[in-house]
Write a structure and sequence with these properties.
Length: about 200
């Protein structure tokens, strides 16, 4: 009697590539299924105590998760609680693991996946220093006006622009400034908040 073929799907949550089906003895076929990494913004509410930022960064490092952006600030009048905003990319299953592991840290009050939650507002601030004279100076000011960048410092040979907005907007502005004399860039990283009346 001929044995029926068995199909097994194995989800992979890291960097393995899809492979073609491979035959196994007995008619079994192995199909390796990958999940694409997606960008997520997390809001983490924590007690403001020494070492908490290092513990969170260490959690990501120890498990091979990459932090694309991280910002932290005190959010209560007595400075006892801080909000950490983390941007990272992972598959849905890996993101569940990240959130669960963050939740287990003792100083953490709450972890919210703003991306999964739905509509939210994200902003970043950047200071961009540009050298320029003559036509390059005029072009830098013209582009700054288009991107609503504000001049916060100026000399006869350079500007410092302040620009706020999405990551994509700032990336594009930096790219354009590179063509007219980009010197230096300082970026704050993403801050984000959910839309509506509910707190993260």
């Amino acid at each position: 009697m001929r044995q029926a073929a068995t199909r097994v799907e194995v989800p992979l949550h890291h960097s393995l590539r899809d492979r073609s089906p491979s035959p196994f003895p007995g008619g079994m076929t192995l199909h390796i299924k990958t999940e694409a990494a997606e960008r997520h913004t997390l809001a983490v509410i924590v007690d403001n105590e020494p070492g908490i930022l290092a513990r969170i960064a260490g959690l990501f490092t120890a498990r091979g998760y990459n932090i694309e952006s991280l910002t932290v600030s005190e959010i209560t009048a007595d400075k006892s609680v801080s909000r950490i905003t983390i941007v990272t990319s992972a598959s849905p299953a890996t993101m569940e693991q990240i959130i669960a592991q963050l939740d287990r840290l003792v100083p953490v009050h709450k972890v919210t996946d703003l991306t999964a939650q739905g509509a939210h507002v994200e902003r970043e601030l950047a200071l961009i220093k540009v050298a320029g004279s003559g036509d390059h100076r005029i072009e830098a000011l013209r582009l700054a006006d288009v991107y609503r960048a504000r001049v916060v410092d100026a000399t006869t040979t350079s500007f410092v622009f302040e620009v706020t907005g999405s990551i994509e907007k700032i990336d594009k502005f930096v790219e354009l400034m590179a063509e007219v004399g980009l010197i230096e860039v300082a970026r704050t990283g993403i801050v984000a908040i959910a839309r509506g009346r509910e707190a993260a």
